[in-house]
Amino acid sequence: MAARPRLRPAGFDELGLRRALGFGMLPLLVAAMAFLAALALAGWVGAATLARHWQTGAGAALTAQVPNPTAPAAGRGGTRLDAVLADLGTDPAIASARALTDAELAGLLRPWLGATPASIGIPLPAVVAVHLADPPPGPAALTALTARLARDAPGTVLDTEGDWVGRLLALARSLQASAAAALAVVVAVAAAVIAVATRAGLAARREAIEIIHGLGATDRYIAGRFAGRASLLAAAGGVAGAAAALPVLLALARLAAPFAAAPATPAQAGLLAALPAPLWLLLPGLPLAAAGIGFLTAQVTVRRWLRRLP
């Protein structure tokens, strides 16, 4: 059977969209928006990573100060320090508890005292480093533990980092909210840029559109052609913006690494470990998101324009 002849060559641009929507300002503007979106996403992911690190680090650690640690414990055998360590060791909310040695305590105080505590005759309490269980206990459990320590070793102070961790978490949440607001603004500006470019293309090809529309071309067909071209240009801009943002994000991640986690080992110091895993998933999604915004924006813009035709 003979092949059916083509009515028009493949890739024929009957609307002249390659001229009306060319590789000019639109991909460049979308690339700038994608670059800013990458930075906003990095800010959101970085704030979440820092919040998690603070909560599992400083938020899960506290100290207990035991004055007169060698004195007998009230109502039980052993010293006051022994009583505190026993209470901490049997509490299900505590993962570990260890009394600092004299050398460790002297090292902590040396920047302020300039000498060992024994040499200047200062009586010091024993300091116990405590790590909370995972998940961390609530305020009620810590209140009960404080009351038990005060009963067995009066004067013992349980120093938590709850206030500071709460402030840090509030700061991290505000940074996440700011990043989300910036991302929303970027999306709105990108949609506005694509809408303006689409309107300009419609105005430039008005006569051709009116001709094929009068010959029977549907609104769906015309809007689909514009949407396909706009999504292609937006995707190209998204690729360029994501590629331009990658070295900037790598540099920022290197600067922020000491605040987020322990230093990476040589085996973990490769390119893949330089950025948080969520960013490696989000960055390739920028061109797809840009294409989706371009497609939807062009569809809405063209259909509204076509409804105004006589």
- Overall pLDDT level: 78
User: Which structural class best describes the helix and strand composition?
Assistant: alpha+beta
The helix tally amounts to 10
Give the N-to-C terminal Cα separation.
44 Å
Tell me the β content. Answer: 5-15%
- Please state the CA-atom Rg, rounded to the nearest Å: 32 Å
Anisotropy-based shape: rod-shaped
Largest sheet: 4 strands, antiparallel
Secondary structure topology:
Elements: H1 17-20, H2 25-56, E1 61-66, H3 80-90, E2 94-99, H4 102-113, E3 126-132, H5 139-152, E4 157-160, H6 162-204, H7 206-214, H8 219-260, H9 277-282, H10 285-307
Antiparallel strand pairs: 1-3, 1-4, 2-3
Helix pairs in contact: 2-6, 2-8, 3-5, 6-10, 8-10
Structure description:
- The chain has 310 residues and is of the alpha+beta class.
- It has two domains: 17-55 and 166-307, no CATH class; 68-155, no CATH class.
- The protein has ten helices and four strands, in the order ααβαβαβαβααααα.
- The protein has helices at 17-20, 25-56, 80-90, 102-113, 139-152, 162-204, 206-214, 219-260, 277-282, 285-307; strands at 61-66, 94-99, 126-132, 157-160.
- It has a four-stranded antiparallel β-sheet, with helices on one face.
- It is rod-shaped, with a radius of gyration of 32 Å.
Considering the chains and any ligands shown, give keywords for the structure.
single chain, rod-shaped, alpha+beta, 310 residues, disordered N terminus, 7% strand, 2 domains, 4 strands
